[in-house]
């Protein structure tokens, strides 16, 4: 089963755009791809969600699936309780991903916020779903100051649960990186205990689909189906 769980060290850090880039690179390589969004918050019914954004960027060949939607922009468990709607459970996520994996070469499961954001009142998380699936977890991180602590905490949480980290991707690399961003390129793999496997440029989500798909593989390392060279990138910003 080829499932990759995508989490972040927080919100608004480029997780959806990174998911779209991985999807686009896989489609370009001739693979069938599905994206699963367990819980979408902060949107009304009918509004385009994260899974729709992935399709917009990666192309209509990607199969989207959303399990739960809640109108308030809160953690999924809180948003579900306030809306009086049933929460999404890790077992539901695992079951949906397994069904998609039966007919797709790659299934990307994109979480909401960080790894340990609660799905329900029991404190269930994306990490629980990843454990049920036995799937590796890709961590999307910020580029600048404060990211090292968040990445290390996420990595320690993964290791404590026996989960495999698939690497770290910088979700929004600035056009003019400052000292903190440049230093973090070398420090992120150290605190994560895993390789830096990509850097998505800031503003990539604003590209039209054709331009995004043409460039996506350049932002990702070979581990994610791309051509990005981490050593060359580090030399260029050092």
Describe this structure in words.
The protein is of the alpha/beta class and 238 residues long. The chain is 39% helix and 22% strand. Strand 2, helix 2 and strand 3 (63-70) form a beta-alpha-beta unit. The mean pLDDT is 96.
Short key terms for the protein model shown above:
238 residues, alpha/beta
Unreliable stretches: none
Radius of gyration: 17 Å
Mean pLDDT: 96
The percent of residues in helical segments reads 25-40%
Shape: globular
Q: Could you say which structural class the secondary elements and strand pairing correspond to?
A: alpha/beta
Number of strands: 7
Report the major sheet.
7 strands, parallel
Order of helices and strands: EHEHEHHEHEHEHEHH
Count of helix runs: 9
- Kindly report the spatial arrangement of strands forming the biggest sheet: 3-2-4-1-5-6-7
Approximate strand percentage: 15-25%
Head-to-tail CA distance between termini: 38 Å
